[in-house]
Specification:
By secondary structure, the protein is of the alpha/beta class. The chain is built from seven helices and six strands; from the N terminus they run H-H-E-H-E-H-E-H-H-E-E-E-H. Strands 3-2-1-4-6-5 form a six-stranded mixed beta sheet. Strand 5 and strand 6 form a beta hairpin. Helix 3 packs across helix 7 and helix 5 runs antiparallel to helix 6. The protein binds iron/sulfur cluster. The site of iron/sulfur cluster has 13 residues, from helix 6. One of its GO terms (cellular component) is cytoplasm.
Length: 263
């Protein structure tokens, strides 16, 4: 099966440059032998894809990873989208026990204290739920764009994701942010109002800030870490040296990393 999916991924990757995003989604819905899942972050790229999937009534599952730390505006976009299209965006939540254990160990905002803490938070709130969201699927659709960051330059329109054992397709890979903005404006697609306030790439509230004019698009994500680490673990395996903040030397995890009592 995986050999068949790998061959199909290569075929679709060669075909995608000649197709519109809507045609790419139709092709995936028609050609993929199994379930296709689109994971939306509710950002502007993903809203365009949700619009196309719902408007074209495609048999593609739309899911979002609710980390529990999203901006209030993201929940508003989620609700507005369901009301506009009359379709449900399925929620996937972190494992309750793992979440409790992590928060009780490293604190509610431990992600600021050490890169290991931040990665653990992304692991519990995003990466493990993503695995469940994609379980049993044959294809995964994302809203990744080539020009979002240097980390994403080497990606493809369609590839085979060996980690999840499925086709990974990026139907907006060659679209620019401005093209997507114009499309969503023309089609009256609900978008997060934070985009207009300088939040170009929107993730969890504690880990997202507005960017200044001229700053890279993803400079507002995990801005206290080095640029090479600014990924959530869903798409890129991060590694390298990082900046640590307020960490007691010698301790890299657990309550002991904090100075003084934690409660
Ligand atoms: S983006 Fe921030 S709050 Fe969200 S899962 Fe990752 S570390 Fe946790």
């Amino acid at each position: 099966m995986s050999a068949d999916l790998e061959a199909l991924a290569r075929e679709l990757d060669a075909a995608f440059p000649r197709l519109t995003p809507a045609e790419r989604l139709h092709t995936l819905a028609e050609r993929v032998p199994g379930r296709t899942v689109f994971t939306t972050s509710l950002g502007i790229e993903d809203q365009m894809l949700t619009h196309l999937i719902f408007s074209e009534k495609l048999g593609i599952e739309v899911k979002t990873l609710d980390t529990g730390r999203l901006f209030p505006e993201a929940y508003q976009v989620w609700r507005d989208t369901e009301e506009k299209y009359g379709r449900r965006i399925r929620a996937v939540y972190p494992n309750g026990e793992a979440l409790e254990e992590m928060v009780n160990d490293q604190g509610v905002d431990g992600l600021y204290y050490a890169p290991e803490f931040r990665k653990r938070c992304c692991g519990v709130r995003k990466v493990e739920p993503l695995g469940r969201a994609l379980h049993g699927a044959a294809a995964w659709i994302t809203g990744l764009r080539r020009d979002q960051s240097a980390n994403r330059q080497g990606m493809e329109f369609v590839g085979f994701d060996a980690a999840h054992g499925l086709i990974k397709a990026n139907p907006l890979f060659d679209w620019t942010r401005e093209e997507i903005r114009l499309f969503t404006e023309d089609a009256h697609v609900p978008v997060n109002p934070l985009h207009a306030k300088g939040f170009l790439s929107i993730g969890c509230a504690p880990c997202t800030r507005a960017v200044k004019p001229g700053e890279p698009e993803r400079a507002g994500r995990w801005w206290w870490e080095e640029e090479t680490l600014r990924e959530c673990g869903l798409h890129v395996e991060a590694d390298g040296r990082v900046v640590r903040a307020k960490l007691v030397p010698g301790n890299t995890h657990g309550d002991a990393a904090f100075e003084g009592p934690t409660q």
